[in-house]
Amino acid sequence: MLKPIALGLGLLTLPTLALAQGAASSKPPAQQPAVQMAAPAAVDAAHSAPRVQIALLLDTSSSMDGLIDQARRQLWTVVNTFAKARRGSQLAQLEIALYEYGKSSLSSEGGYIRQIVPFTTDLDKVSEELFSLKTNGGEEYCGKVIQQATRNLAWSKSKGDLKLIYIAGNEPFTQGPVSYQTAIADAKEKGITVNTIHCGSAQEGASTGWAAAAKFAQGQALNIDQNRAIAYIAAPQDDEIARLGTELNKTYLGYGRKGEEAKMRQEAQDKNASAYAGSAATRAVSKASRAYDSSGWDLVDGTKKGAVKLDQMKDEDLPAELKGKSAAERQAIVDSKAKERAEIQGRIQKLQAEREKFLAEKQKAAAAEGGDTLDKAIIESATKAAKAQGMALE
User: Fold this and answer.
1) Computed from CA positions of residues 196, 50, 20, 259, in that sequence, does the dihedral angle turn out positive or negative?
2) The domain containing residue 282 runs over which residues?
3) Same domain, 230 and 245
4) How many other CB atoms are found less than 10 A from the CB of residue 106?
5) Nearest-CA neighbor of 349 among 12, 84, 71, 78?
6) Which of 50, 52, 221, 383 is the most exposed place for a label (fewest CB within 10 A)?
7) Could you give the CA distance from residue 185 to residue 238 in angstroms, rounded to a whole number?
8) Does one domain contain both 142 and 286?
9) Exposed e or buried b for every residue in 213-241, given b needs 16+ CB within 10 A?
10) Eight-class DSSP state of 178
11) Using one digit for the tens of pLDDT, what is the confidence trace for 135-174?
């Protein structure tokens, strides 16, 4: 059944893409007490897995409500695509950072730019921040926000990792104190590919510098209609996948100072996703994937990844289910939750395979309606960039 809705990309809340302190100060597990290691999924620069880093720079001036809405709605679609990223048999780790620019309430001295979230694997935090974004008028300095993202984010130094900037907006690309040529040249020095997403026609994007900037960056010039209404295709598996996504929450054991806050955030982002048709299901699929990393606050993921040692934790830092328990009893509860989670995730993944097959047929007809949206633009361009780096997103 097709239902016209306004598309919004709940992304990259590009859900983003306040963890700055955690990411900057992360230490190897052996050097920190267990509770202090609960900073939400701060990126560990020491890991050896290939990385996919995406920085989303969103124009939040008055005309961009449709763009922000697309980011909110389609965040989980994008995440599900990159959850499959791999080089050979080795799965990649997805990290998202989020900036906003062009809003008059931001500091003029800083160029009307704000880093919302540095690179992180905490996707619920990205979503939370996307849903909190507001728009109002301002000055849009594309060159300056690219420069800040290039200089201030913890970009991988590995030449084999996929490093992408997506800047989305609709004002002339040449505004502001920093030329896009200077900013993009800095990005290219670090192996970062800048892609432009003009919210409007290709002709307008070409006349206002968006296409020229992408060409200079050797990236892709993309154009979307941020206000376009599209057809939502309901799949028969949607409701059950969404229900199982809610069931997954019961398997999380929040620990330390961040545990309770993170569990509340998880539930809040379930509610936010449910506001958009189909998004509750795509979010549940993300929660059933390896991209949904809760090791910074959840004992099941935390013990599995070595982020915390269960037998060394203080009783006051444990969730209610584990307080006053012996080491053996603690482990038994965590193991039981891990088993339950794996079973639910397996059911979601099976249903998602059926859902993808169903949607593939239905979307052929819908594609003929034309007009890219934020998620499609990002996925298609990133697929090409990944191939150039020897990665695959399938």
Assistant:
1) positive
2) 238-358
3) no
4) 18
5) 84
6) 383
7) 44
8) no
9) bbebbebbbbbbbbbeebebbbbebbeeb
10) S
11) 988 789 999 999 999 999 999 999 889 999 999 999 999 9
